[in-house]
Amino acid sequence: MSNFRFKALEIAQSRQAIAVAPPAERVGDYYGINTFNKEVMRALLSPEAYLRITEAIETGGKVDRDIADEVAGAMKSWAISKGATHYTHWFQPLTGETAEKHDAFFDITVDGKAIEKFKGGALVQQEPDASSFPSGGLRNTFEARGYTGWDPSSPAFLMDNGAGGKTLCIPSVFISYTGEALDYKTPLLKSLAALDKAATAVGQYFDRNIDKVTATLGPEQEYFLVDRALFYARPDLVLAGRTVFGHSPARGQQLEDHYFGSIPPRVNAFMVDFEFEAMKLGMPVRTRHNEVAPGQFEVAPTFEEVNLAIDHNALLMDLMEKVAEKHNFKVLFHEKPFAGINGSGKHNNWSMGTNTGVNLLAPSTKPKESLRFLTFLTNVVKAVHDNADLLRASIASAGNEHRLGANEAPPAIVSVFLGETLTKALEDLETKNEISLNKGDNVYYKLGLNRIPSLMRDNTDRNRTSPFAFTGNKFEFRAVGGSANSASTMTVLNSIVADQLTKFKQDLDVRLANGEKKELAIVDILKQYYRASKRILFEGNGYSEEWVEEAARRGLSNIKSSPEALAVYVKPESLALFERTGVMGHAEVESRYEIELEKYIKKVQIESRVIGDLAMNHVVSTALKYQNKLAETARALVDLGMNAEAEPLKDLLREISTRVIVIKQKVEAMTETRKKANNLGNTVATARMYATEVKDFFEVIRYEVDKLELIIDDEDWPLVKYREMLFVK
Ligand code: ADP
Ligand code: MG
Question: The GS beta-grasp domain covers which part of the protein (predicted)?
């Protein structure tokens, strides 16, 4: 094994950057060439079909069968002309991976001739064998059927299969035979529709021309890169996606010299390569840089409509994994691949835009627009305040559990950062009670609202420790995990804001019916909302121990474990919210809860097995061999009469023995606990036991193993060390 480690290191060190040539000189010449986009459709479809399909894309409406037939025909000839041999519905089942099942365009006619076939029916709907995807009890065993259905709002694209041609991928939803959602996309689309409806209704108080509100998302993706050879020499990375052992290198991220530093050439080649491929697929990747931890990087696209942004993020992750192979890297999206250094998140930058071209979360210089801005801002704050636990549930996973509250990531406490200026504006709103609207815009002056814009422009205050931060013209939800599909968190955020805006409209309509003046009523409602939700606002250091105490005093939740966080999904008030907003029925939410718990159990179970296996078969066995060497040396010293000199060796032998005994005992006890957990016969109880009693062994075992790493001869140590994985470039 140690030979394996040194062989891997040799391979890793001998690597060179692989040169990458741009597909064309100008981005415009290759941007989106692998997508069936509007331009292609305009060229290939009849004007009638083009109009109907673009309408359907913009309004989310249905596509008639005859139009679907025409689109299918155009897609087929476009795809085949670009080298595609197969097509697939591309969807996002609740496993967290993307799924595809390739069918050939090619078919045989009754008289044995080969033809290329792809009709509207196959475009609109398909029936993959769904029985191997999680359904959380939504699908009876005898009813293994599930359907995928075309989502016209996300353009079809071509994926290169490596050596074997290309596949036309058609973004799709995935539902059960009885119509329940089995994927991430279906509830997301429903939440976007709910938000559109609620936000448009509120927008209309300010501008009658607002008839559509689109939620926008720019996901900043963090990741680690590890050399491929080193990756395969770490069974824990291969099996669990994170290292379960490994002593921190003498030099970690304390120098903070990696962040925004120059990008190593091999890494740069990889980045350039996947960015080219991403742009060909119509993804607006824009920024790349080193992240805080050594070996950690980030890619961020320009924001897009949420559904599209999420498809693009899922596709980008797939693409990065593929391109990494070519550059002999492995991409780690895991939230915490290495202990003691930063983990990876996916910052979800979110806002709402209108058909009139207004970003509803952008402060304005005009007082009237400021009221609109404050209305949306305050409603978002209220929504987050009232549903903080649900938002926390939406980011719960085995991986993210290592990150949240772990001192260098946003805490598990949900709080909102607004910055000094906005906090002040809301304070003014609350404290100035007597307001007369007679003097027109003066009221805004009295409210101090006109101060927002001028100050906002140079308002650069930033708080990197807040999980939910206002960053100038959008909110940034930073607690989302690096490996997550953002859809679950975006579904919750859209739903709670939609629900809150609907309540706001109801509150306002009651007052308007009572003859109150609109602006006055709005200001008063916002004042009440602010008062009711201000305890969630926090401007200080979110990573500090003081905040944990302060948050407890304020009565804010601090849900650390995933099973506990996930349980919020099935609380009566959560079920009611999803039902009210039309996003998910009870059975759908309950099945999701079940699936998330099962995923959690499996992940922790795998980690626990890997820990046991590595500890016993790699670490303990190596320790015993090293003990033999030491013992021989000690014996030789004693034979030579050098008793005093033999003492330190005996101490070492004792230390190794003690640690080996602890490891062995703990591994055995962990296995027993796992058995107990597995036999509880109740997913909730099993998950809780894994989160507590099973996981409690992880740190204890790791502590002993990491100590042994410091003692045992480097030549003998079987696992690639942190310094080797993180600093090889
Ligand atoms: P930062 O200072 O946090 O790096 P950037 O301006 O680089 O901010 O933006 C980070 C991400 O936020 C990018 O993906 C960007 O496109 C996205 N973003 C900017 N404006 C919006 C918006 N209105 N809605 C959603 N995302 C946005
Ligand atoms: Mg950011």
Answer: 85-179
Question: Vertex 376, ends 374 and 382: CA angle to 5°?
Answer: 95
For residue 184, what are the contacts with CB-CB under 8 A and spacing of at least 6? 92, 94, 310, 485, 487, 488, 491
The interface predicted TM-score (ipTM) is: 0.97
Query: 140: alpha, beta or left, given left = phi > 0 and alpha = psi -120 to 50?
Result: beta
**What is the token pair recorded at 77?**
């000839």
Gap from CA of 35 to ligand 1 centroid (Å): 24
499 lines ligand 1 (CB under 6 A): no
Best of 222, 292, 303 to mutate for ligand 1, by most ligand atoms within 8 A of CB? 303
User: Would you say the C-alpha torsion 389, 336, 563, 488 has a positive or negative sign?
Assistant: positive
Encode pLDDT of 3-62 as tens digits.
799 999 999 999 999 999 999 999 999 999 999 999 999 999 999 999 999 988 887 778
pLDDT of 538: 95
CATH T-level topology, domain 192-582: Creatine Kinase; Chain A, domain 2 (3.30.590)
d(C-alpha 566, C-alpha 572), whole Å? 13
C-alpha 425/C-alpha 377 separation (Å) is: 12
Instruction: Kindly state if the Cβ of 217 falls inside 6 Å of ligand 1.
Output: yes
CATH for 31-181 is 3.10.20.70
